[in-house]
């Protein structure tokens, strides 16, 4: 009986030792453990947290990725070393073949360390605009934004992190709430817009009256944080001419982004009304 128990105990110990020294088993166990931990932590965040859920889940995902990389590297360190030595002659070819992945990882390290933006910020990368949805070691995910209309397009952009190294990054987060909205109305030169320019100013101030106090405070916050003077919050109207001699009226309105297009349409309607009225008076 004792011999049987000893044999079973010895067998169990041998199996356990074999499993613990089997690097494939250790790697699978590590990944399963980390992914299960991530699953339960995500559930906990969704249940307990009321704000910044997406930010915390994204940070958790990045931490899990780094932890898995470190763990797998430690488990297979000896094999990696032997493998690296055995392919020393092909190092240049491997670097060239994996250049994009290396640049992506370097880009991930760059945005993690410098933090030029956060989850939820509006940014511009090259010619692409969008709200930062998530980041990982390979890519940046943006919810595309039509910067002219200040609204989501419904498209999702996946930008490789390597592009973050070679392209300029502009943080447009202030545009999420208020924007310096510019638009131009072009007409022929038969009517002098200076005749009704004061009326246009009255209309512009009228459309901006209900949020003027908030706009002033927000304008001051932006100037304080950026340490620069920016236009606004008062509306500005300028008259110019195009290359072919047409009259151009340029408007600059500091307003909430969700009302920019509505205000533009209202001012355009008023301009057309004044313009055609003046033209009828000139014809009589």
UniProtKB/TrEMBL annotation:
Domain named Mechanosensitive ion channel MscS is located at 103-173
One cellular component term from this protein's GO annotations in UniProt: plasma membrane
Q: How does it sit in the membrane?
A: Multi-pass membrane protein
Compartments where found: Cell inner membrane; Membrane
Has keyword Transmembrane? yes
Keyword Zinc found: no
The portions of this protein that span the membrane are: 24-45, 57-77, 83-111
Alphabetically list the UniProt keywords.
Cell inner membrane, Cell membrane, Ion channel, Ion transport, Membrane, Transmembrane, Transmembrane helix, Transport
Q: Which GO terms describe its molecular function?
A: mechanosensitive monoatomic ion channel activity
Pfam families, alphabetically? MS_channel_2nd
Give the matching InterPro entries.
Answer: LSM_dom_sf, MscS_archaea/bacteria_type, MscS_beta-dom_sf, MscS_channel_2nd
Q: Which family does it belong to?
A: Belongs to the MscS (TC 1.A.23) family.
Function comment: Mechanosensitive channel that participates in the regulation of osmotic pressure changes within the cell, opening in response to stretch forces in the membrane lipid bilayer, without the need for other proteins. Contributes to normal resistance to hypoosmotic shock. Forms an ion channel of 1.0 nanosiemens conductance with a slight preference for anions.
The entry describes its oligomerization and partners as: Homoheptamer.
**The protein's name:** Small-conductance mechanosensitive channel
């Amino acid at each position: 009986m004792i011999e049987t128990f000893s044999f079973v105990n010895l067998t169990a110990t041998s199996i356990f030792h074999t499993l613990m020294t089997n690097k494939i088993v250790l790697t699978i166990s590590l990944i399963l453990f980390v992914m299960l931990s991530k699953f339960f932590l995500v559930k906990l965040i969704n249940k307990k947290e009321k704000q910044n859920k997406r930010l915390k889940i994204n940070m958790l995902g990045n931490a899990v990725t780094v932890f898995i990389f470190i763990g797998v590297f430690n488990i297979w360190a000896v094999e990696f070393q032997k493998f690296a030595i055995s392919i020393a002659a092909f190092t240049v070819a491997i670097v060239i073949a994996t250049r994009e992945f290396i640049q992506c990882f370097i880009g991930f390290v760059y945005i993690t360390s410098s933090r030029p933006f956060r989850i939820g910020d509006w940014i511009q990368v090259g010619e692409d605009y969008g709200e930062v949805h998530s980041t990982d070691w390979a890519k940046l995910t943006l919810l595309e934004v039509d910067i002219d209309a200040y609204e989501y397009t419904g498209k999702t952009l996946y930008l490789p992190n390597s592009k973050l190294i070679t392209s300029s990054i502009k943080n447009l987060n202030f545009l999420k709430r208020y924007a310096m909205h510019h638009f131009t109305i072009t007409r022929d030169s038969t009517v002098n817009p200076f005749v009704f320019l004061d009326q246009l100013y009255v209309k512009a101030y009228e459309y901006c009256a209900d949020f003027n106090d908030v706009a002033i405070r927000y304008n001051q916050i932006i100037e304080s944080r950026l340490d620069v003077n920016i236009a606004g919050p008062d509306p500005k109207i300028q008259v110019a001419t195009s290359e072919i001699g047409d009259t151009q009226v340029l408007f600059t309105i500091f307003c909430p982004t969700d009302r920019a297009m509505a205000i533009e349409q209202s001012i355009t309607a008023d301009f057309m009304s004044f313009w055609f009225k003046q033209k009828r008076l000139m014809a009589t």
